[in-house]
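Exercise 7. Given the encoded structure of a 137-residue chain, write a plausible sequence.
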């Protein structure tokens, strides 16, 4: 008897469906806090949208400086997980990391940059506009 082939099916191309007669145009987003929102909403900032990174940026928005251990406790996460996500935010220049030693003990502190604060404000404006547009439907 011949074995059945277990070849994976080919991926389907994702063609854009043509607009139908009952297609509804997206609802424009209303201004938030006196600031205009783009007529066509941009994609969410995926860097901030991830749960742990949003938590880090939010915590730093209301605290001038937080230590690694303070962030780890606030976020209820592991050392490795926190350091990976903090590094991504640092690479994007959303946060700064200052490492010092107190005696022989390393001490790491994080703070939010102006770029990070602006990115968080844009993210929050975008989310508020999406919530408002959803509630108005």
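Solution.
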């Amino acid at each position: 008897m011949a074995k059945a082939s277990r070849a994976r099916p080919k991926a389907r191309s994702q063609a854009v469906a043509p607009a139908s007669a009952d297609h509804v145009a997206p609802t424009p987003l209303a201004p938030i806090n006196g600031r205009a929102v783009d007529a066509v909403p941009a994609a969410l900032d995926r860097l901030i949208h991830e749960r742990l990174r949003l938590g880090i940026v939010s915590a730093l928005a209301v605290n001038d400086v937080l230590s690694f251990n303070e962030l780890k406790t606030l976020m209820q996460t592991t050392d490795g997980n926190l350091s990976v996500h903090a590094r991504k935010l640092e690479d994007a220049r959303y946060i700064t990391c200052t490492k010092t030693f107190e005696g022989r003990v390393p001490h790491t502190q994080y703070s939010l940059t102006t770029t990070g604060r602006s990115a968080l404000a844009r993210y929050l404006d975008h989310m508020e506009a999406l919530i408002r547009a959803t509630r108005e439907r």
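Remark. The two ends are 60 Å apart (CA to CA). Students should compare their own answers with the one above.
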